[in-house]
Design brief:
By secondary structure, the protein is of the alpha/beta class. It has 17 helices and 19 strands. Strand 7 and strand 8 form a beta hairpin. Helix 2 packs parallel to helix 7, helix 15 runs antiparallel to helix 16 and helix 15 runs parallel beside helix 17. It starts with a helix and ends in a 6-residue tail after the last strand.
């Protein structure tokens, strides 16, 4: 990777300026379910600030349709949920963290019900007993174990309810529209995180000093041209953690959702996997159902297999997309089960009772991220990570559907509790003059929007669902060029800062994909189409090192 990515320590210059100071015991970066869970847990022992880049609807949590996976059916078992997770993860799941998160599922659902999350009830069984939760099934699950809200609006209901809890808590302050630009670290072995530098459109640059900092900043979907993620998902957390010497793992593994609405000129909108779980079929332009030709589980196969099958079928038929056929499900059933999707389709004059839904794969979820232990600690003292920004070892090489909200709650709460080790020890940071020595660039100016568009297009074409070594090498060369003309620039707005973060994250994904000369989970190399035992390990990258370290996989509890 270009030396500019390795040498640049901070994203913005500070020109020996003493910035306005804010002090807190715990700083949480991000307000999705992981950040909310972390803040609520930390507030049991500390004063907390949540720095949110936007507002709740800007988070991936808010738009999560599918639901939360949990063992609630007496006929289901924790062993089965763990086995499904491990199978989807293609040999890279850490078994200990899998069992820890799977086992916590019922308690999480109980806690959320206590908060008032309106889970959909199971149909009345006629016995007069209180109804339990309706349980759906999604790809990769061998049992129905997905709880949901309002059919396909689980994330909105979950996030909104948790947001009410956060706002009502006397020890939590929520700073919305607060862009976190960089983590502040104190040099040492290991380095220690002392808080972050932020920008608010009203208050400008500020330093938030914190004894403990919890990264819960979400995903990287906007690095790709086709994405289900909201515009805020630009990988800021991974980028700032890398600059702060945090260890970054498994970056080759980006999950692509098989079914997003494909309408020319419109942004991509997710069509939840639960639609296939209800019995919808994937068909090509000729109306032929094709998934059984690719996998024994047909439409319920893991997402990476379904995404590649759709691409293959598009290639065979010479068409730009495939279709999700829901006509046999019945109009009333579809509308009752998926009211949000029904409203979305109506905006485009599509009726699932009569029209096959045009779909196309899109980037959806970052499986890799900031490497953590089972308590959400990173290698940087005082820095914790949870949710999509983190790599806990739960997902391995491919995330099992609806495990992410569960992980966000479990590991978010764990990060909040564990942060007490910093706050109780009194590891506060004293104000300091923060200096950057980035010189003014002598090179020509550049069009940030053009760089962003080019980056997203090349990532989709060559570092997307299918990859090959030659193309990855070409993309590496492109990043070398972009680094020379962007990382020496001083930007004064969010668009520029985000593009610099996207470039760094894109470079990390590309480098990891080029290093991993095999196919496993979401990572498919056409020049190395089979998994290889030598790569059954977590690869861990750190700033200043040309090659990754490898960590063995914890394959047994």
């Amino acid at each position: 990777m270009h030396r500019a990515f390795e040498e640049r320590r901070y994203l913005i210059p500070f020109r020996a300026t003493l910035l306005p100071q804010i002090f807190t015991e715990v700083l949480v970066i991000g307000e999705g379910v992981a950040g909310q869970s972390a803040a609520l847990a930390a507030a049991a022992h500390a004063d907390v600030i949540i720095a949110a880049k936007g507002r709740l609807p800007d988070s991936n949590t808010y738009w999560a349709q599918g639901g939360i996976a949990s063992v609630l059916d007496p006929a289901d078992t924790f062993e089965s949920h763990a086995e499904d997770t491990m199978k989807a993860g293609a040999g890279l799941c850490d078994a200990g963290i899998v069992r820890r998160i799977v086992d916590a599922g019922p308690d999480c659902i109980s806690d959320l019900s206590g908060y008032g999350v309106p889970f959909d009830p199971a149909p009345d069984d006629g016995t007069g007993a209180p109804p339990g939760h309706a349980l759906g099934r999604e790809g990769g699950h061998t049992r129905s174990r997905i709880v949901h809200c309002d059919g396909d609006a689980t994330g909105k209901a979950l996030g909104t309810t948790m947001d009410q809890q956060v706002r009502a808590h006397e020890r939590i302050r929520l700073f919305e529209e607060c862009f976190v630009m960089d983590l502040i670290t104190v040099n040492g072995a290991p380095p220690r995180c002392a808080g972050a530098i932020t920008h608010h459109p009203r208050y400008g640059l500020q330093v938030i000093w914190a004894s403990a900092t919890i990264l819960a900043s979400g995903g990287i979907g906007q690095v790709y041209r086709e994405s289900t993620n909201p515009s805020a998902a630009t990988g800021d957390g991974i980028a700032m953690a890398y600059r702060a010497q945090a260890r970054i793992a498994d970056m080759a593994f980006v999950q692509f959702h098989p079914t997003t609405l494909y309408v020319a000129g419109a942004s991509r909108a997710l069509i939840t996997e639960a639609v296939r779980g209800e019995g919808a079929h994937l068909v090509d332009r000729n109306g032929d159902r094709f998934m059984a030709d690719y996998h024994e589980m047909a439409e319920l196969a893991p997402r990476d297999i379904v995404s590649r099958a759709i691409l293959a079928q598009m290639s065979q038929t010479g068409h730009t997309h495939c279709f999700l056929d829901c006509r046999h499900l019945g109009a009333d059933h579809f509308k009752a089960r998926f009211p949000g999707i029904s409203r979305l389709l109506a905006e485009f004059d599509l009726d699932p009772a009569t029209d096959p839904i045009p779909i196309h794969p899109s980037a959806h979820y970052m499986i890799g991220g900031v490497r953590t232990d089972e308590h959400a600690r990173t290698n940087v003292t005082g820095l914790y990570a949870c949710g999509e920004v983190a790599c806990s070892g739960l997902h391995g090489a491919n995330r099992l559907a609806s495990n992410s909200l569960l992980e966000g709650m479990v590991m978010g709460a764990e990060a909040g509790r564990t942060s007490a080790e910093m706050t109780e020890a009194g590891n506060g940071a004293a104000p300091a003059r923060t200096i950057s020595d980035i010189p003014v660039s002598s090179r020509s100016q550049l069009d940030v929007s053009d760089v962003r568009s080019s980056l997203r297009s090349v990532m989709w074409r060559h570092v997307g669902i299918e990859r090959t070594g030659d193309r990855l090498a070409e993309v590496q060369e492109m990043f070398e060029f972009w680094a020379r003309y962007t990382l020496d620039k001083i930007f004064d707005d969010r668009e520029g800062w985000q593009v610099q973060n996207m470039l760094l994250v894109g470079a990390l994904i590309t480098r990891a994909a080029q290093w991993r000369c095999e196919s496993r989970g979401t990572h498919y190399r056409t020049d190395h189409p089979e998994p290889r035992e030598q790569y059954r390990a977590h690869e861990v990258w750190q700033r200043g090192r040309e090659e990754p370290e490898t960590e063995s996989v914890e394959s047994s509890v």
